[in-house]
Amino acid sequence: MRVKRYEAPTLQEALLNVKKELGSDAVILQTRRFSKGGVLGFMGKNMVEVLAATDVGAPGDAAPAPALKVNHQLAAVAPALPAAENHNSDIDSLKKDIRELKQLIRGLAPEEKSAETIQPFPETFGGVYLKLIENDVDPAIAQDIIRAIDETLGDEDKKDRKKVQDSLEKHLKRLMKTSGAVDTSRTGARTIALVGPTGVGKTTTIAKLATSLSFSRRRRVGLITVDTYRIAAVEQLKVYAEILDVPLRVVYDDDDMKRATDIFSDMDVVLIDTAGRSQRSEEKITALRNILSVCYPLDIHLVLNVNTRFRELLDITERFSRLSYNHLLFTKLDEALTFGNIINVIVRRNTGLSYVTYGQNVPDEIQPAAPEKLVPLLLGAPLSQCLPVS
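and the corresponding structure tokens:
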């Protein structure tokens, strides 16, 4: 028996490390929480320790007690072993970790079913689940995907890795709700505003959209900026406006916005750049809503950095909902290691994705959202294979 200890900030990370080093057939012998660093036990970093083993049950080894397999077959989970190396673990903490493990692997709350009544999923599903988790798909969403695949495939097909993979991709494409490129087919002005937190790339994205619409699609474009907090942003947009030979209006209040939209009433598209707002500043979000209210009807795209933590993205999308945004737009894909946040936010907020951007080059490195291009990213494909990188 080969036994090894792993430390990580979260239980999920520790399990992934076990799988990478010991393989899919490793078993969890013990978990515990502890504090690392700090002074006299204070200000330490919360950590999780996982004791794992492989080659369990080989000839000559003592028969182990039932343990949780890391192959994520979502099978029934028996209680963990006692400490294998005289580890003094708090029983309540250990029980808490086991409950978390059950929820992580099976997606079932402790009170939903007893371990004896849970039906195992096919082994091929374990690899699918780990692939989603490794690419930062939210565990709850990953578990829902596994259930959907299980309900779709027949018993024999569930044993076929290719058929499981094909079913996974089809399901992800269905979940990848998109709203597509800006629609300029309607008569009259089409007004589009980009809103979102600071530093997500709204001004650069506005410039990319303006260039594409003006040059490639031959549309008459008007630019409006409400980003008067940053002089550099206004100057940047002025430069792009001069290069594109499109009119630009700087807006400071509701009256300015009304005049600007009236002036641009004969344009095919009006693009509005806004100042970044902290999602926690209700006053500033309300002020922005008041300025944009004179432009209705309009499309509002909430611009998000794909590298933001999922928990923060949920907070941002919730607080900006006061602006009644009807599209999502993800930026900075070129700086990301994983892309699970894209599907996480789409599923949780049930809002379509309009565009993704993946670099600073104007007018390049922006693409209308398309499931066939984005789903491979969710499964670990490199960016250069999915999007036309400059």
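(Above: one complete record from the training split.) The first strand starts at residue 2 and ends at 8.
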